[in-house]
Amino acid sequence: MHTAWRHALAAFGAFFVVALTLAASAPAVRTQAAPVAAAADVDLARGRPYMITTTLPDRWLHHVEAVCFPDTGHRLTDGEIGPMDWTFHGPWVGFLRQERRDVVLDLGAVRTIHQLSAWFLQDRRGGIRFPKEVAFAVATQPGLWQTLGRVPTRIPLYAPGPVRQAFTLGDLCVAARYVRVSFTPEVWCFLSEVACIGTPSVLRGTPVAVPSLAMSVRDRGYLPASLPVLHGRRHEVLIYNGYVPRHPSVGHWTSQMFLPYVAYIDPQGHVRDWLFDTFLFLPFTCGPSGGRYAYGSATQADWRWYVDQLFTPGTQLAALDHAVATAEAALHQRGRQVSVVLAIPFPGRTDRFLAGLPLDPAQVGHPRSLAERAAVIEDYVRDVLAHWRRAHFPHLSLAGFYWLAESIPEAESPDEHRLIRLASAIVHAAGPYAFDWIPFHESEGFRTWREDGFDDVLMQPNYAFDAGPDRLANNAWLARKYGLGVEMEMDWRVLRRDPEGDAARRRYQDYLDAAYRYGYRQTLLAWYQGYQVLRAAMLSPDPAIRRIYDDTYLFVRRRHGSSHRAAHLSPYYGRTARACGYGARPRGPGRASPQTTDSAEGNQLSRRDTETC
């Protein structure tokens, strides 16, 4: 899910509940002195100053680190290794995402280094993971680094813990003054101590650190929208649908509901132009059983119910097809087809899916569990395609399938990357379909998306849900580095008529402006808009709210300039900005839209009730 609490939970790794429990019951902290390699050696790092740098600083995530698991400036070289338990403000220093971290130690003078170590903690209950690897480098002068080696984790990331591990690089003989320890947190990394074992003096003949050949690391650039597998898709709007507890009518879309997404409707209610070219259908959180589609607890009956309701005559896909036909008639154009992408729920590892089906690896072993879960996906894709062929939608083209889970739970099982690769093979064997994914910001596993078989991946910034002002720039940096597209997001609060609504609308404008500044306007973009937020904006008599819809149209149809409000974001400020005066006109007499309130309320239902299964 894309809501604020969902991303906060993902970012924190769900550790806070566990933390409170452990903090209350934790025994007295027990520490262990860092060992030395030989009698003549000492820990050269003991008490030495160090600096921590972050590749991708994020104010919001850094604030969480500083509040909960801060570094006092000496914890990493105090000579004490943290205990197996952890508490807030304990000996473990917490690092939450933000790409690569470097801990740089100054030994005070050139010394002889024999061994380097860094101690990390893993506790899956708290979202605390070992880094996949730790890299060590040394230098005689700042910035002139000699890479000594990389040490992979010896303990699997799915080991439950709590467990401690020393990442150690030994058998060294090098003279250097500075030491750099580098690692990348997938969620949380807890580091307690960095040790540098060696001698204070430098014997004659000891090799001095020589800078390694600088490798030019080029980013991949944004995901090219021209990729053949994308079938010409440029702007993909997310359509949440399906089961809503206590509100069964909310998740069903009609042709009238789809029309403002298929085509642009002016303030007088007339169809004027086309709008989105792609529609991603994905379920609300829960199925009728109460199981969650993205978390592996939905049942086989939930999966089948979801497919059946997608193809119910007069609603969902059929309603979208009819809306395209309606827009064709209004625009006096023929032959319009929009692309459709359909979600694949996440198959869990328990027998909840279907009694008797061996999905639990603890009972049947990992190979059989993986094979059975892949078979569940294959049956689902086959069922969807059978429904699609029978439906004969003249205005819809099935472009691909979307992996619903927004992260890869690699710390829960060794099978998750393999499962996605099998799902990719199933999708590609079924036809010329793309395999898509939209992970939340810096979610687990996103860096290996190509190896996992995804054709296109778009990163969620999550800026709309109260992240810091640097999030859009950071998200663009990640997208360029890893070859991703970007998701545009609007929270339901853009519909509010109060200061909170004003702030939400400013944040949405920041999204549009950032696409100009950071150059991703031409890549594949997904558009998250909660449940019918854009339709509610289109129907709103409030000019500020209506402008959300108008500005979205202008952006999608490449007629939108950067905002006059945000010169700090857009290099196009003062050149292409254009007024949206028509968006500020209230509706005329007889054009009242009672569905405005209903639609806005429905969107709030999608946040509250659809997440309460």
From TrEMBL:
Keywords: Signal. Pfam families: DUF4855. Residues 1-23 form the signal peptide. Residues 583-613 are annotated as: Disordered. Transmembrane segments: none annotated. Residues 593-605 have a biased composition (Polar residues). InterPro entries: DUF4855. Residues 583-592 have a biased composition (Low complexity). This is F5/8 type C domain-containing protein. It comes from the Bacteria. The lineage of its organism: Bacteria, Bacillati, Bacillota, Bacilli, Bacillales.
